[in-house]
Amino acid sequence: MENWLKVCSLEEIPRLGTRQMKHGEKNIALFRTGDDQVFALLDRCPHKGGPLSQGIVCGRHVTCPLHNWNIALEDGKALAPDVGETSPYPVKIESGSVFIRL
Amino acid sequence: MQKLKLVMVGNGMAGVRTLEEVLKLAPDLYEITVFGAEPYANYNRIMLSPVLAGEQTIQDIMLNDVGWYAEHGIRLHLNKKIVKIDRQVRVVVAEDGTEAGYDRLILATGSTPFILPLPGNDLAGVIGFRDIHDVDAMVAASRQHKHAVVIGGGLLGLEAANGLKLRGMDVTVVHIAEYLLERQLDQTAARLLQKSLEDKGLKFLLQKQTEQIIGRDGRVSALRFKDGSEIPADLVVMAVGIRPNSALAESAGIHCNRGVVVNDTMQTYDPRIYAVGECVNHRGIAYGLVAPLFEMAKVCANHLAEMGIGRYVGSVTSTKLKVTGIDLFSAGNFSGGGNTEDIVLSDPMGGVYKKLVIQDNKLVGACLYGDTVDGAWYFQLLREGRDVADIRDHLMFGQSHVGDAGHQGQNKAAAMSDDMEVCGCNGVCKGDIVKAIKLNGLFTLDDVKKHTKAASSCGSCTGLVEQILASTLGGDYSPAPAAKSMCGCTDHTHEEVRAVIREQKLLSIPDVMRFMEWRTPNGCASCRPALNYYLIATWPREAQDDPQSRFINERAHANIQKDGTYSVVPRMWGGLTNAADLRRIADVADKYAVPMIRVTGGQRIDLFGIRKEDLPGVWADLDMPSGHAYGKALRTVKTCIGSEFCRFGTQNSTQMGIALEKAFYKMWAPHKVKLAVSGCPRNCAEAAIKDVGVIGVDSGWEIYVGGNGGIKTEVAEFLVKVKTAQEVLEYSGAFLQLYREEARYLDRTVHWLQRVGLDYVKKKVLEDEAGRKALYARLLFAVQGENDPWKERAVAGEARREFEVLTV
Hints:
The complex is a heterodimer. Chain A is mainly β. Chain A contains no helices and ten strands. Chain A has one domain (4-101): Rieske [2Fe-2S] iron-sulphur domain (Rieske Iron-sulfur Protein, 3-layer Sandwich), CATH 2.102.10. By secondary structure, chain B is of the alpha/beta class. Strand 2 (18-23) of chain A pairs parallel with strand 41 of chain B.
């Protein structure tokens, strides 16, 4: 009943790195943290729509490449003092594969 | 695990800042209780003068309201004065019997105004100037009474006098010394100050000693001096200094000596008890300005959070008077004397006086009146202890480092109106910044950058923002510390990190972070790219480049645009091209439907609007080397046509440019690097505003360094004249390698050069021949180990993955 979609293997996302993903018209950014957790956000910074998939991953946030806003990977919310949010998507890793629910 | 109990006695700025820092570092470590003797939550005490002057209200100056304490689970006891500390059972007791046990105790009891031991000092209407209560008393007195006397012509006294005058009272300032502000100004500046305050209607009695305060019906009515004269007084404000409040600590047997004595970790003689703020005596000094108190708070919090690093080693302070319309600034040893030299500019009619005190080629003191624009810069020179010999002849005229572009040519924040734009990049007006400073209690440039975004893009308005901070906060603003840490992830400076990478031969970012005890698990977007550069620059061909620690442009080898597409600039050696290259560029533009093609200022062609997934294809089809227009790297070598065609040309500048570009191509650097070669002194290639500019003359080549055509135009300085093209390569290469090895990440050559001085560079590059050759060899070794990034990615392989989009 819950539709988990297989995206890629964990190895295909670099550690502390990102990948772009497309689902229909939707652009989604995937992030892999230093401790191998994977998160997914709508690939639009709440500030000026910058592609978060092109940012730098640190700890539990990504820094947008356009104006350095920091967005939390877990919930898509901008870190203070900035305000705004982008949509998060649930992700799970099973036997080395990354799955997303849209 | 049960939380430790942290109790704080005193609820002022230093103490609450300590708690804020503790909450940032270790939010769950402590159960916190605060006792404040005043009925208010934490307010900005340094803004009491503007409140008295009627320029602000109490609401404006609240820093943390009661809600803040609740939000952080802090138990707040207002109006409760602690009268006893029982160190055996570790309990503090308030006047009304309230008790609180502690595991750690912070004393932040502040100071009290010193009240002169004169007969009559207990009469109604005799007060100090310290808290909201005093301000209320002064405002009330101004409504009913006429004559106010302020005893003490120091900063606080003058601010009180100014406020009372604005409230409509007739104000006389009584001062024991020969001139005002004798601890902040020299006599000339003080006379100028006195004159402008007299113009505002204040009266001064100097070298006067009060003998008695005379009262009528229990309230003060007059002041009598030792010389027998008398003046009427309905209100007397004592502003003759402060005394640290150490009575509580003393009564608990804690060692005090004009303040609670603390060590460099802000601990008292009882290691469970810390002390911060004005109640403290650190290395024999009690500070009364807010900047040092905040530095103490940071150190204290670091130890309370059990991080155990950070020492407070004292502060150099500067002074500014918060009286609207009067600009004065002083720092260090401004009186001079001994073996110091003075540089003085004096224009009494124009109301400007500046004095700089120099000792052993270093600035040791500054006293400015009337024009304080460069105060922050002098203060920085002073604290850095920088050798000023090379800039001595124009030191007096200031840095004029405030940019020329983006803010209507303004360089004096005070002269700007609230609706004038300060930051042209982010559209931030002066009023926005002032409001953010007041509303959010900001004290540092970094705070302002974060909250307003001003000065956070190109940085050219940094000087203006600093001025606005200084004029809004008065003397309590202190510019960013001289030895700046790399970022919030570490306390180490760029130089320290570079040295450790070299000495310990560290080869990866995780190694550096482990070795230097980074606070964050994997750094941030500002330190990671810096570390990556330091590693590959120090250990070329050994340290592994980390694409995930590069800004997207360097990861994708193209420039990201606001819509997420990229631009591509192929390399054209020395700005030269040919029909075949142009034809391929045209074909690529057709094939990928490139929406815009532009010729750049660096004599290249820029293709815009290319989708990221098309980049490898574009590179393969172009079959030209990467132009590195996206990198902190050698960008372009701009050339003029030179002797081959030009009737004025003395040297073959195009060939020289091509040789330089081919030799240094693929060179990563702390920031972008631009070169130019002109074939004669007409300098059509604009070599005077390049990082390295080469100008051909009949007898050889002149090399200029440290120019910059961007945010702030800087003219390159003459380094050397050489004879041959080979020498041009060697000298420019050695200069660039020195910059690559020693500059901070994001320094352009000019910024680094301003810090180390041209003489230093001359010593390394000109005088030391073996050193120059070694520098040049190291540069060639580094660039020859790099591959062309476009060629690598134009073919299928691991590096292509960055450009592939997953589809689901």
